[in-house]
Please model this.
Amino acid sequence: MTQEFIDKVSSYLTQDISITPISQGAEAIVFSTTTHPYLPETKGSREKYIIKYRPPKRYRHPQIDQALTKHRTLNESRLLAKLHLIPGLCVPQLIACDSYNGYIWLEFLGEDLPEGYGFSNLKNFLWMHDKDPYSDLVAATLRKVGRQIGLLHWNDYCHGDLTSSNIVLVKDGVEWIPHLIDFGLGSVSNLVEDKGVDLYVLERAILSTHSKHAEKYNAWIMEGFEAVYLEQGAKGSKKLKEVSKRFQEVRLRGRKRSMLG
Amino acid sequence: MIVSTIPQFPDTKVSISFFEQVGNAEEIRSKMSDLSTSFAFVDPKMICSQEQIYSAIYKTLIEVNYNKMRTRNLNSECVLCLSPTSNISDAFQKFGIKDDSTELICLKFHNDTDNLNKEQLTTELSSIVTGVEIEFNDKNLSKFYDETLIRKIYKLNNQFKPKDVKDLSRALVNAIQLRGI
Model:
């Protein structure tokens, strides 16, 4: 099944562009490549790029399938373009978008962590620091993660699938700069519900993978998150109150809203 | 002159020439109806990086191969693809050559079947443009672009403060990739 898609992608890209599959989700397959889609001098350089491909689903009517793929590819690309304009927010750069075939080219972020801890997403980073979980580096990084989410929500965007593996850390000297990735389920939304759910999903993700220190971790994230709102003055603290209140409610009932009443 | 190919479309070549101290912009513009079939003339005031031009070239080939051609040929399509809007005449007014242009970028798409002869092309161009050819690179482009104008035409809001040319260029690539779809 997957091989079929890999062959399809290869024939779309021609043999000049070699690809390595990285991961597959329900909707898209992600590849990495060393070839830039259009800049000439990168040939042979060690720079990497991401190709995100949404393959057609055979259980859908072809016309509907095409429309959906186009819509979703564009939705994600548009979101990334808008988020890039927000000062301080870190998201991957959109390099190219072919919505007719369901392809997005993105900047490659992150690196492999030392000692076989895997790719530098937040999840693996926390595993790597499992022995010194309360170090300043961990605290600072998690506060920065919180800031990113705060900035996203303050500007009325929601991620939709905020897990610790969708937060990639990019090394800058001794610091780690968190970047939010995968906006496939992202949306423009001013609903406190969506924001509450984002926070809840991340809290649960951290709770399930790093339960021993989760309380402290989540507190640091919320510190960073709140800081963004509090910097905005009275209006910010009012909105923060609304989001936190809903977050508590979501925490009690779970992600899915009750269908009763 | 630089000749490049987009890896995904190996059958198409694009030649790019960059001129400064152009003295006959008005004359070129008056001959536009004949010339527009063979070249695209772009005003470097609107271009801040190579990335921006190449991004539009890529977009042109995607549109023409997988959607449809909206203008008469690939060269004119590329000017349209530079623009953040789908209005063709608007794109030409803003991104094309102006009467008082003193710098110029000339673009031409070549099919694999065309015999691309660099010398012949240079001669052809020098008979059209009176100016000094300079290398098409980011350093030279950075001398001529007009950030205020670019921000206005690409409708970048005031909240966005690019750190450097690269950051600005990225915002333009986003706009180019997402135009009109």
